[in-house]
Amino acid sequence: MDITIALDAMGGDYAPAHPVAGAVLAAREYGARLLLVGRSAEIEAELARHRTSGLPLEVVHASEAVGMDESPVTAFRRKKDSSIRVAATLVRDGRAHGVVSAGNTGAVMTTVKMICGVLEGVERPALCAVVPNLRGPSVWLDVGANVDCRPDHLVQWAIMGHLYAREVLGVASPRVGLMSIGEEDSKGNEVTREAFRLLKDAPLNFIGNVEGRDIFNGKADVIVCDGFIGNVSLKAVESAAEAILHFMREEISKSFLAKLGYLLARPAFRNFRKKVDYAEYGGVPLLGMRGASIICHGGSSARAIKNAVRVTLDFVRNGVNNRIHDEIVKMTARETRVPLTGGTPLSLGD
Known about the structure:
By secondary structure, the chain is of the alpha/beta class.
């Protein structure tokens, strides 16, 4: 299957340099066909810095760019020719299978949702992060798309996270946990307690409540929470990882023996950094949208953009959207026939 990806070349703190460099790396390594969307003169100037002969890269002009601090709604209404809007339109019109952007997260989510729309049956899309744990990677959602939610939204996100973990990460039967303040059924606020009740009867490998400490211990393959908790927690985790690396560098620089020890253990430190570096995971998918939508960190390096393209390719090749659509429709039909508290569970194995 030939996959085409629209890349918002004007999105991010280091645009267009890093998006263009990442696109070149991705085209060279994965053979992905990329449409670089943005101000053509600036994009072509960046391309001239790289060896691009024979690479499947095409420039699509967009005269405007959305700033990192702009209001998402205002940007959508006023900037009709923004790079993210043109990129999303390419997906809507079938010229691209997915969009990648390191731009203003709110603007990207708003634009993609308004232009491409959500999958049938999906109430709200969710941002899905992939994080390392003691047993391998796990899926964590929502990490920022929805500040407030209802219990049934959490159930839909659990199903979407289950499918992403199974189809993209290769987890045969993902264990799904609900983020709360304790493992007991009665713990949590009104939304999480009701979500717990619904999830017990959902067609999932639901293991119950999990706590913040379970994000990295491998207890669950999918962790579900609202976007407020998810976003605050994810940023705290990113900050902690950066602080740990900073403290390690400080201690290493204090003595000759520490420096010598570092040289001997450098491969271990390099592997540790690789595990906690967001650039390795590229970007987070916005699940529930029509077409693949991958949102990157604003400060994404060329390597992060390259890996975001890889994530998009995996998403499309594994038919994640088709799976989400089918299972959400099944769940909706089941709710119509019988209450969620009864009936025969659906099979998510097909």
